[in-house]
Every structure is written in structure tokens, then in C-alpha cells.
Write a structure and sequence with these properties.
alpha/beta, Rossmann fold, 12 helices, binds adenosine-5'-diphosphate, single chain, seven-stranded mixed beta sheet, 11 strands
Length: 319
């Protein structure tokens, strides 16, 4: 192996830059050349790439987003687009490719592997919805951002004695809502993985008021339903003053936490080592505080586990 390619794909996640830095520096350390494809799979299809030097990744470890840019590429979903990508890969001279991205990017990486491109994926998504890895890059930062927002909303909620329904990201998963709900002391956490009953949520709110609670915070994962509807329903049923806040993209931005930077550095470096060892078609994940390598087939076949125990604990503590 003489030259490797790297790209970031799908939704941006804080820590992707730290992963790029690790890939580029670890590869150069071992005497490999590195090419960075811009805008995810779009760069593969349209031949947008640049040679990466040690200095190309200077001063980015602390920055959110991704310096190589990211995109969703409909062309790459088509066979013709992937064949075009194959030609670009051959022309660029890379012998292996590291893809940093989420679930969709993993499927794209698997499609490339089937076309004969040696591919390794590093899980990078705030949603933390990728199986076979306890964490994906960006999740910890997103949870930090949401917890910080909950703290701020709580001040207003207490002062005005209101119920706040806060909608958080996660696509079809409730991992961010659960972690931030536990860390932020939310009264109820609504996630797609656990069936919920709004009557029970309202009972809980009313019990809280009876014992003197000045405010209530309800976290709703976007995949569990629209917070606006949940807020309307709570207002109608309890007659309590209710407000809805949709956190949106502020959850994804900002400087990555130390955890995400370290995770990204370790996974990026491990991805280079995997390619160097001749292994590919695999994801470099993180389990029980260590690097955990799994084949694409295994990751795709498995569903990410939802920590039900943690959910029960959050419910008990918000009694
Ligand atoms: P994420 O990686 O964050 O989950 P997406 O789901 O948008 O983001 O996927 C990123 C990109 O991966 C898509 O724009 C597309 O180019 C590619 N992709 C997704 N699914 C597939 C698939 N089944 N086959 C080939 N490429 C795919």
C-alpha cells in the first residue's frame, strides 16, 4: 500500500476533523501518501480531490464540521455514479479508502468494497446509531450541546413555572435524547425505541407539580414524534403552561469534546493500521474502551442496541 484516500460523508459530526488529522498524520508517519476527496462521495464521482500534507490538517483538531466538506450524493446511489467513482479512484492512484461517516456512508462503503475498492469505515455521526460500536464520533459533543441547552432552558422553565418540551436530533434513534435527558435531569424522555403513553407523561407532570416542582423538561427525540404535537397535547390535557423548543442544528456545531477528539484520533489511526495490515471491508469501532473491528456484513446485519437499563434508570431518577 502506497497511497490512501480519505473522505467525510453524510451528516457532519464534531470530531470528523480530528479523525482526518489522525488519518493523514498516521499515514504520512508510515510513509504513505494521502489524498482527500471533497464533499464525500460527490468528490469520488466528480474527481474533486487534493493531496494531503502534514500541514493540511494543522489547526483543525478543535474545530467542528469537516475541512474536507461533506455532502449527500444521489449520483453515488446509482450504479453508473459508482462506476464513475471507480474510474476516479483508479486515476487518483489510491490503493485503499477510509470513509468517515454514518449509516448511509457505511452502505456506500460496502458498495465500493463490492466493486473491489479496499475500504474501511470510521463511524462518524451524532446519532450513535451504528451497531458494533459503543460510540460514534460526534455523539458525545452532541449530548454535551443538548445538555447545555437543557440547563439554559431549565432556568427559564423554573422562573416561569412552565413545562418545556425540547426536540432533539437522532433521526430514527433516541440515543441523544436518552443521554442528554439523563444528564439534564429531564422529567420524561420520549424515544422511538420505547413505546410511551402521553397520559402517563401528563400524570407524571401533575404529580411533580403536587410535590412542588417548579418546572418540567420533556425531551423528545425527533424520531419519536414532533415536539410541537407533544406540546399541544400536554397543554390540552394538563392545562399547564407549555412551551416547545426545537434545538435543530446547534446540536451538531461547535468544538468537539475531549472525548470525541480522542475517540476520533484513535479510530482514524486504527483505520490506517487496518489498511496497512491488508485488511478491509471493515469498520473500526470502539467497544469497552478499546478498538473493535467488525466486517461490513456484520455491522449491517446487526441493529444498534438501545440501552434499556439506562432508560429505566432515567425514568426512576425523574420520579
Ligand atoms: P450518513 O452517512 O450520515 O448516514 P446518508 O444516509 O445521507 O448520511 O448517506 C451518505 C451518502 O452515502 C449518501 O448521500 C449516498 O451517497 C451514500 N449512500 C447511502 N446509502 C447508500 C447505498 N445503499 N448504496 C450506496 N451509497 C449509499
Amino acid at each position: 500500500m502506497r497511497k490512501i484516500g480519505v473522505l467525510t460523508s453524510g451528516g457532519d459530526a464534531p470530531g470528523m476533523n480530528a479523525a482526518l488529522r489522525a488519518v493523514v498524520r498516521k499515514a504520512i508517519y508510515h510513509g504513505l501518501a494521502v489524498v482527500g476527496f471533497r464533499r464525500g462521495y460527490h468528490g469520488l464521482v466528480y474527481g474533486e480531490y487534493q493531496e494531503m500534507q502534514l500541514g493540511s490538517v494543522a489547526d483543525i483538531i478543535h474545530r467542528g464540521g469537516t475541512m474536507l466538506l461533506t455532502a449527500r450524493s444521489p449520483e453515488f446511489m446509482e450504479r453508473s455514479g459508482r462506476e464513475q467513482a471507480l474510474q476516479v479512484i483508479e486515476k487518483s492512484g489510491v490503493d485503499g479508502l477510509i470513509v468517515i461517516g454514518g449509516d448511509g456512508s457505511l452502505r456506500g462503503a460496502e458498495a465500493l468494497e463490492r466493486l473491489g475498492v479496499r475500504t474501511v469505515i470510521v463511524p462518524g455521526t451524532i446519532d450513535n446509531d451504528i451497531a458494533c460500536s459503543d460510540y460514534s464520533i460526534g455523539f458525545d459533543t452532541a449530548v454535551y450541546n443538548v445538555t447545555d441547552a437543557v440547563n439554559k432552558v431549565r432556568d427559564t422553565a423554573t422562573s416561569h413555572e412552565r413545562v418545556y418540551v425540547i426536540e432533539v436530533m437522532g433521526r430514527t434513534s433516541g440515543h441523544i435524547a436518552l443521554a442528554a435527558g439523563l444528564a439534564g435531569g429531564a422529567e420524561s424522555i420520549l424515544v422511538p425505541e420505547v413505546p410511551f403513553d402521553l397520559a402517563e407523561v401528563c400524570d407524571r407532570l401533575q404529580r411533580g407539580v403536587k410535590r412542588g416542582k417548579l418546572h418540567s423538561i420533556i425531551l423528545v427525540a425527533e424520531g419519536a414524534g414532533a415536539a410541537l404535537n407533544v406540546g399541544e397535547e400536554i397543554k390540552k390535557r394538563t392545562k399547564m403552561e407549555t412551551r416547545v423548543t426545537i434545538l435543530g442544528h446547534l446540536q451538531r456545531g461547535g468544538t468537539p469534546t475531549a472525548f470525541d477528539r480522542i475517540l476520533a484520533s484513535r479510530l482514524g489511526a486504527a483505520a490506517v493500521d487496518l489498511l496497512r495490515s491488508g485488511s478491509h471491508g471493515k469498520m473500526v469501532g470502539f467497544r469497552s474502551s478499546d478498538i473493535h473491528v467488525t466486517s461490513f456484513a456484520e455491522v449491517l446485519a446487526e441493529k444498534k442496541e438501545f440501552p434499556q437499563e439506562l432508560y429505566r434508570l432515567a425514568t426512576i431518577l425523574a420520579i
